[in-house]
């Protein structure tokens, strides 16, 4: 079986990450419960004629994928696999409200077309003229991990040599309004740096796109090797610890070998205890990292975690802003990532320095 | 690694039947499930026809034994019913005995509830329970719960009209690679105002019965349906002495990379998908005995797909037909519906007629199978082609 | 007619989200689809809705649109002859 490597990365997030040069040296702090992305100049990457019918999610996905390709020194790939929880949700909202407001009259196709979940993957393929395998996974907080799992299977079995994978989600006004009503978003505004200490229910919502070129060939630009990824539709709080122990055992890795653990804590007092099971127990002496105060919570936010871990492994730097505790190491060789959302759709990912 | 990917159970609910047997009876009796829409109030009622499932949401909830505080969308209800049938059909009593996953497909997700309560959400607490049921993964989570699948690989694919074919493909690869011993695969989509109006804006809805591969075809009829199949590894088949219904021999996915919604004129993506599927199966075109075409009856699809079929099969073209005239186009579920039909074709050595055909298309001289036909079948190829250039082909065979 | 042409240009730019194009960039006889302005079949569907909504003209076959949307000149002429509002 071939090994699987991350050879290029591209990130559009609420931090200034699209440049790919510095690594969170300057952090943007927000005082809100819904945070937007820092937009690159999309026109630099997308032809205006093509851009005229591109939703925000498409633009973010197309540009993040271009950045990842350039980073890997590639013009094209064998396959494109996209993860998105909600797709281009603004267009879904636009089309539903138009149906209701206009009593089904004078509707136009553009927002309907863009509301289709695979529109981002389709547009990336169209732009690259990539006729290869093209899948879109839409399973809440493991949408992105599903793309990684699919790509890994193909690369290990040499069904493809280079695959573009990514996670993308955009914010929509109505979606945010109703998620405030059911308290998935915090009622109060909060300074993002204080997210973990908030002691209240709900979290802060973000958006973004994180794309990666994964390959079965190592090259100079390689960030990390993908050792394993597993997803679980359910896990009880009491099952998390044993699941992690079993996962590490299956991959012949001991807890001491984990140099950092990247956790998806989002400051929701109702669900952060899933992470606490690990951070206050098995991994209490391990460097713990969090990131949702930087990118916000969204269905594919964990792709930002992979971006972060890739950067740590390649640069061997671990920015202060992401440290939960102070257990820094000289070398970061192996990183474990754990994420879940509202107690469902858990994922474990293992990356290693090359 | 498992060499074979065995299909050991199937479940289906569509406009032509509430289970596998009813669907088969309708298919061989030429019984269409297309009618004027009754369950959704729409101004287009008079100018569209649909493939609607008779049962109401309340009846479906009752069938599943759900309490009134449930927040199932119709997509989830249909999916849970079909998936439970598949498990029962396979004879699985305890799903936890083997490492079992679920790969579902949907395009509509919980949109039926969202469009009903869009503004109500903002003021009526009673309907807010459906907010969490909107996203595509929710129906899959609910189906997993209904089947008792826990702590496992459960995910959702949404690639428009090829979604369920891709769920089957990914499931097959998970079995082949040894990642799972058993996986339930399929798709579910209910009718919604959202899709009706969406396809209406694209001007590809027929105002009468859809007529696949007919020169005068006017467009598609939307349908609602769910279908799931149980895939098992050689290990499980042997250990449980299973009756294997058929094997998944080949699969291929490609992108047309041509247009946001339309297929390329020569069907590049569809051609690539069929070629890949043949390659995976280690087949030559002559090994295929019947093609269940995507055949939506839109001007664009049938021309593009027909040309692609000709490119791949040339003068070795076996019988082909589309079953969309029976069920309507069931979007993300279509690939699974037609997988069930392909397996039934193999089991019964039957080719279904392409209903409503009258006039030969002028762009080529291939004609779909028009009458029910008995033929010894070894392998069937099924196409699913969708928006975003997404093209998929699956090959089902009697032998491993 | 001149007022209608101006109105059409403004509406097309807005409806089709042609960000970098101004009314002055579109000449009355410019080809709108394909090599000209670069519009495609989805834009045609958008314009069909515009005809219905603004001028009460209903097209049932998208193929009809191709000829009608040849240029601003052609469109304006067709609308003048067929408008019901």
Automatic annotation (TrEMBL), chain A:
It comes from the Bacteria. Gene3D superfamilies: 3.40.47.10. One of its GO terms (biological process) is fatty acid biosynthetic process. One of its GO terms (cellular component) is cytosol. Pfam families: ketoacyl-synt. Residues 46-218 form the Beta-ketoacyl synthase-like N-terminal domain. GO terms for molecular function: 3-oxoacyl-[acyl-carrier-protein] synthase activity. InterPro entries: Beta-ketoacyl_synthase (IPR000794), Ketoacyl_synth_N (IPR014030), Thiolase-like (IPR016039). Keywords: Transferase. This is 3-oxoacyl-ACP synthase. It comes from Aquimarina muelleri.
From TrEMBL, chain B:
It comes from Aquimarina muelleri. The lineage of its organism: Bacteria, Pseudomonadati, Bacteroidota, Flavobacteriia, Flavobacteriales. One of its GO terms (molecular function) is 3-oxoacyl-[acyl-carrier-protein] synthase activity. Belongs to the thiolase-like superfamily. Beta-ketoacyl-ACP synthases family. Coiled coil: none annotated. GO terms for biological process: fatty acid biosynthetic process. One of its GO terms (cellular component) is cytosol. Gene3D superfamilies: 3.40.47.10. Keywords: Transferase. This is Beta-ACP synthase. The keyword Transferase applies. It comes from the Bacteria. Residues 2-398 form the Ketosynthase family 3 (KS3) domain.
From TrEMBL, chain C:
Pfam families: PP-binding. InterPro entries: ACP-like_sf, PP-bd_ACP. Coiled coil: none annotated. SUPFAM superfamilies: ACP-like. Residues 2-83 form the Carrier domain. Gene3D superfamilies: ACP-like. This is Acyl carrier protein. It comes from Aquimarina muelleri. The lineage of its organism: Bacteria, Pseudomonadati, Bacteroidota, Flavobacteriia, Flavobacteriales.
